[in-house]
Amino acid sequence: MRNRLFPAAAAALFLTALAVPAAHAKGGDAPVTEAELAGHIRILASDAFEGRAPGTGGEDRTIAYIVGEWVKAGLEPVPGSATPWLQPVPFVESEPLTSRATFKVRGRDIRLEEDGVIVAGRDPSVSLRDAPAVFVGYGVDGAGHVNTDVRGKLAIMLYGNAPFGAKLPGYRERRRMLANAGAAGVLVIAGDAIPWARLRDAVAGKTVRLADPAEAPPSVSGFLSLEAADALFARAGQDGAAAREAAKAAGYRGAELPVTADIETTARIRPFASNNVIAKLPGARPDGKAVLFLGHWDHLGICGEEGDADRICNGAVDNASGIAVLIEVAKRLASGPRPDRDIYFMATTAEEKGLLGATWFADHPVLPLEDITVALNIDTIAISPRGTPVATIGRGRPAYDAMVRSVAAKLGRKVDADGEADAFAQRQDGWALGAKGVPSLMVGGSFSDMPLLEAFLGSDYHGPADEFSDKVPLGGAAEDADLHVALGRAFADTKRWTGTADQSGVP
Ligand SMILES: [Zn+2]
């Protein structure tokens, strides 16, 4: 799962009980066992896989394992693929070396506190001269469009989510939108949400992005501390707090500042390659619609400091557990009665770098995106015990919600409809597909019991301690695997699910 500060769980939990006794129809799919999942996780999260970082030997071993299991299951490579089983994804790693940013108000140099601004450049060497600054608020209007003319300018943008729309993009995506709109640079005003030291380390450290002009950041990116931003506004004769307040309106159009910036940066740039792994289970009676299962295979790789006893972030829960479920779901669906529709399975790369593999797939799909009747993402699934209710990220299309309720009820699962899971919508691969209009759901127990999830996020998550042991709970993951087998059968059944827009409630 993608890193982000965990928002406090707010709403009280209430459950919609739809419990009926669990029963597997005669001749139905055999339940997925905890032992089967453990077998995969033990291997994928072993030190030999070095934490599964994209572009490493750990990637090679991970791909070989997943493809090997999918071949055993009976899946096929996507027909016509130049690189069977693999979708190559090109990346650029950038390591900042030097940076300098100075500001002028009406042509006169001003000094900001030394540590108040951090910048990094996109290319080996970047030089901005006299770039005019414009405060853009959240950078988008209520409709999600860039809200002002930023061509050739240094845009100064707010960090948090815009208060005037629940589905508006986060700051990374807004920054890219400003770059696409021609901004020379984007400085984000840091709030209290993330400690300044963490932002500074993030900008100063290596970053990875897609080698795709459409996904490129501005030539200069960085952060302004709240204090430095207020000081800059004050030197320009303006009130920073008042500007931030004005920006809370959906129709805010930005404000030019009598400020120009000179910014110089150097960086070491390294291209490298990684891969999404994609397989197909051809349907018995394909109707042009398809079901897509996905989960990210990557994790953080060697993450500890030199000299640490354990330097490998093994990513057992995040997300070897999800890949284990993808493998077993593929085995059940391929070995039982053949579903009507085509079913695709995808293990994505670089989710941890910002949903990058899923974003690449959404920009370069191997089947038309409009043919995907549902995408089901599986991430960080070994959290809860058996009996945990089913939560769904991506609710809101009545026909889909009804299908999930019906499938869960048939398995004797309770449904948790309190909406707490929605806080994770932008932190998982389904978001990248949903942004392109693919109905994307993440369904299961891991995002239903918030105290359990918070306990994981507050301890082993994204550290060397996320490794496999008998203590990793697999009961809920096994139940969620069965749920995904049943969801796959339901959404791939042309009689049960028409797969048309009117059914989804989306024209
Ligand atoms: Zn993660």
Automatic annotation (TrEMBL):
- Report the Pfam families cross-referenced here: Peptidase_M28
GO molecular function terms listed in the Swiss-Prot or TrEMBL record: carboxypeptidase activity; metalloexopeptidase activity
Family matches, as SUPFAM superfamilies: PA domain, Zn-dependent exopeptidases
Iron in keyword set: no
- The entry's keywords: Carboxypeptidase, Hydrolase, Protease, Signal
Q: Where is the Peptidase M28 domain?
A: 276-469
Its GO biological process annotations read: proteolysis
Q: Which positions carry the signal peptide feature in this UniProt record?
A: 1-25
Q: What is this protein called?
A: Zn-dependent M28 family amino/carboxypeptidase
